[in-house]
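Q: Okay, next protein. This is DUF6268 domain-containing protein from Hymenobacter sediminicola. I've checked the sequence twice, so it should be correct. Can you predict the 3D structure?
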Amino acid sequence: MRTTVTQRARLLRALPFFALLGAATVPAAAQVFPPPAPTPGDTTASGAIDQQEFATPSVVGMGPSKGLIFHYERMPTFKVNSDAQVVGLQDYSANAEKNARLVIKGYIPMLNRPHLKLILGVNYEREEFQFKQNPTNYELYDNIENKALKTLGAQLAVIRPVNTDNWYIFRIKGELSGDYTSSELNVTDYLRVSSEFLYGWKRSPTFSWGIGAQLGYTFGRQSIYPAVLYNRTFNNRWGVEALFPARVTMRYNASPRSLFFAGYSVDGFNYIIKLRNELTRKNPETGLALSDKSPLRTLELRETEVKFRGRWEREIYDFIWFGVEGGYRYNYAFDAFDRTNADREKIVDSKFAGAPYASLEIFIVPPRKFLKKSSAPR
């Protein structure tokens, strides 16, 4: 009898050890890192909010939030065709030997409360072109090759969990976009403003969706269009992250430190181009300059492209990750419009041939210790 009691006591003392051992051997597939993470770069971030108390747009399984991003993208040689839409200009056809983009972004939490998040973002982008013939003797392309196209911007995102079921996001962004240099920058000429508002529902830790509207340049010109957010994790491996119609992405969680994505995105850019040499529109019958039109000194360049892409994100060390992306770019438009006269007439209609592209990205995320502290019960 004493032996049985002794054995039972030993077994009870050993139970905590076996429980700890069992917890340490949970398969990696059942673990998700980080807990419902935000994506401030997409302006749908929520930060680390206690999900038992407040609803958020993020879901379990999403990749870590990005605080600082360094991104470089490159496309190989592709064909360029430009058709003049007004008399007095010429058509153009050649190869672009280089189209590259450098993007640097940073996000800073200004206010981090369970019921309210304020995130300040800054960005610098530079798009470069090189053409086979230099100079091209085509005013538009000589301009952008020698000076490049730059974007300098700042944004403020407000993330407001309303209750356990609802949330909303408001973002406003201002950017200076064009071929300016520091010596000739005029804010009123180059300023571009965009904004968005989304209201959503958190159905579960793995499903959140919302509807709203965006005012921006995704489709080349400033316009308002509807937006539908849909974030859902189906199981320990698969999920979807979408802000339709701008982008839809399927996600595969290979491990807590390795994620794969596939989908499409629509990207729009709007630049102001100051011409070195004035361009004169002419009467098609007489060949003389139009008396009611001022010579062109400024053009508005509207660029829209669709990318079909695959992406891999991987942790390098704790708070340092890298991303590798590749796919196919379809250029929908690269058109120049009159910014000198009030009619905003299309001046040049350009088409870029489709081409593959590749990009490399290094980004900084919150350290794991910080995430654990942020997700701890309050």
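A: Here is a summary of the prediction. Confidence is low (pLDDT under 50) at residues 1-52. Residues 244 and 355 are 24 Å apart (CA to CA).
Q: Noted. On to the next one.
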